[in-house]
Design goal:
Layout (H helix, E strand, L loop, with lengths): L5 H18 L26 H9 L3 H12 L4 H24 L28 H10 L14 H13 L4 H14 L4 E5 L14 E2 L6 E2 L12 E5 L1
Helix pairs in contact: 5-6
Amino acid sequence: VNGDDPEACIRVARLAFEYRQAFKKDVVIDLVCYRRRGHNEGDDPSYTQPLMYDLIEQKRSVRKLYTESLIGRGDITVEEAEQVLRDYQQQLERVFTEVREASSQPSEWTTVPEYPEKHGQEETSTAIPVEVLKRIADAYTTAPDGFTVHPKVLPQLQRRAASIMEGPIDWGTGEILAFGSLLMDGRPVRLSGQDSRRGTFVQRFATIIDRINGDEWTPLANLTEEQAQFYIYDS
């Protein structure tokens, strides 16, 4: 069923429900649709699927298509449609203001239990040479020839490279330094899972997608000729 047609989706859902209730069998609905925005307020899906989202941006939204259909059938007028939209936007603004102005209650801290100190543990040095830091930073600011970094991603990569040499570093940069130093030390690194390459919280950017043609660039796979293999997969 076409996800751009809300009424068709409802009819199919009701049909599937009635079939299951009548014949006690499973039903699968093939809903043909897409996600227009990212899965949270900080996610821009064009980071990883630029070509697809160029097409999606050109499509009229489900709300606009359905509104035009209702007006065309004479179910509502243009004025009524615009009023419904204004009412909904005002509702969102009202709730947003209430949340923003609400005073948060202070957290109640509980006493942290004391644990006996463990003696005899040797401290392990985890420091890495500054040359390794510099090489990882350089890898993130040296894109392949002809590669177009997403305009929203490029400043993040530049800030990451600067923070590596100047500090402070954030969580995502700490991850990259850990992976990169392991690779340069000859130890393979493998990651696999949902949004592993970009990072679930848009913090990793282990693989970067060309904004124009969708080509891929993985900086940590190009640190040195002698480095270990870097395997990273989206599930």
